[in-house]
Specification:
430 residues; alpha+beta; Cytochrome Bc1 Complex, Chain A, domain 1; six-stranded mixed β-sheet; five-stranded mixed β-sheet; 44% helix
């Protein structure tokens, strides 16, 4: 049995300590049909633990001037906190209660099940969030990242307390944790923090279900697809265009990061210049490879007026095809490389930022210091390397386009955009 991974970034600038305790697995492991289980379980664990119900736990944290939050991603569940260094021991005990002794009360369980559909309604009201939700769903059917971490009305109704308790007991074990500490902390206090957490949680092995392998993932589906998410009275179309791509951390990562910066990662990028500056079709346009533990999406986004959504999609697909075929110029690569290297210090400026990046690297099962070391990798990548990576990793012929808009008004122009056969769905059916 292995101990948890521990990351410490000390800085005595202020008498504050930040901590992140990541439990590997995350919403990608929700059983099919009970999407939202990890999120529901983690949030419920925070609503009362040990001898304290939800109100008493919040009151205790307030009296200490501390915070204790839950985060849920597709790759992990996290218990994060902030404490004055003199109150760290007390806050450790509260975090350990959440990890080792959540109350999982029936009342809070039912209350959370009633509250979550309201969050779902908020997403359906937010065209940008809705576009992302649908793009995830249709980009690569069967991919574990494609299913919603929030859940649906149907999946939430299937979540029972027995499922919640079993999940927490199975996954909150020492070997499945990554512990990060930053701020006013030394080796002795860091060791005390880790020891006090570990003496409370189960000293079990990492569950086999938390280890997902790329072999389980479907390949990119050939052919372009267009999905119109129909909402009445829209004046814009929130657009997402992309396809399944590589895993963050694969050999092409550094070269592709430069490639994506040229295409859509800077104000001078091709997408911004063609879509915003030259034509004024969208306030912004960009692209990114999603950073995750498994192969994820390469995604382009913009919000175009409904009258120009079709031409915007057509031009974007043309740009993507040309870029995949020819790649960036030498000058574009040099500028993007300088931009990325120059911006990296802003991402590692504080001890907390460095700790969070290191924890994320560990959750993604990358070598220690991987992300912080990317500037060195960028400096060693040639323009030919970038063009080669772009050619391998960008798949314009498999592009999936999602448009949240009023279908009747946008359909004729979008049909002419070359994005594939259109499918119209109700905005509230998923």
């Amino acid at each position: 049995m292995k101990p948890p991974i521990v990351v410490v970034e000390a800085s005595q600038d202020t008498p504050l300590v930040w901590f992140d305790i990541a439990i590997r697995g995350g919403a990608a492991l929700d059983p099919v049909g009970t999407e939202g289980l990890h999120r529901h379980t983690a949030m419920l664990a925070r609503r009362g633990a040990g001898s304290r119900d939800r109100a008493a736990l919040d009151e205790t944290l307030d009296s200490l001037g501390a915070a204790l939050d839950i985060g849920v991603s597709r790759d992990s569940v996290s218990v994060s906190g902030l404490a004055l260094s003199r109150h760290l021991d007390a806050v450790i005990d509260l975090a350990a209660d959440v990890l080792a002794a959540p109350r999982f009360s029936e009342d809070e369980h039912e209350r959370l099940l009633r509250e979550t559909p309201q969050v779902l309604d908020e997403i359906r009201d937010d065209d940008s969030a809705l576009a992302t939700r649908w793009f995830d769903w249709v980009c690569a059917p069967g991919h574990p990242y494609g299913r919603t971490s929030l859940g649906t009305e149907g999946s939430l109704a299937k979540i029972g307390l027995a499922d919640v308790k079993a999940l927490w007991q199975r996954q909150v074990v020492a070997e499945n944790m990554v512990i990060g500490l930053a701020g006013d902390i030394d080796d002795a206090s860091a060791q005390r923090f880790v020891s006090r957490v570990l003496e409370r949680v189960t000293a079990g092995p990492r569950p086999a279900s938390a280890v997902l392998g790329p072999a389980l993932l479907p390949g990119a589906t050939p052919g372009r697809k267009l999905v119109l998410v129909d909402k009445p009275d829209r004046t814009q179309a929130q657009l997402r265009i992309g396809h399944q791509s590589i895993r963050y951390g694969e050999p092409d990562t550094a070269a592709l990061a430069i490639g994506e910066a040229v295409l859509g990662g800077m104000f001078s990028s091709r997408l911004m210049q063609e879509i915003r500056v030259k034509r004024g079709w969208s306030y912004g346009a960009g692209c990114s490879l999603r950073r995750s533990r498994l192969p994820h999406w390469f995604e382009i986004w913009m919000a175009a007026g409904i009258d120009v959504a079709g031409p915007a999609v057509a031009l974007t697909l043309e740009l993507l095809a040309d870029y995949a075929a020819n790649g960036p110029t030498d000058d574009e690569v040099d500028f993007a490389r300088s931009y990325l290297i120059g911006s990296m210090p802003f991402h590692v400026a504080t001890a907390r930022q460095r700790m969070q990046l290191a924890v994320r690297d560990a959750v993604f099962e990358l070598p220690a210091g991987y992300t912080a070391g990317l500037p060195d990798a960028f400096s060693q990548v040639s323009a030919a390397d970038v063009r080669s990576a772009v050619s391998r990793c960008m798949r314009p012929d498999a592009a999936v386009t999602v448009a949240v808009t009023t279908a009747a008004e946008a359909l004729p122009a979008l049909t002419k955009a070359g994005a594939g056969t259109a499918r119209i769905v109700r905005h509230d059916e998923y």
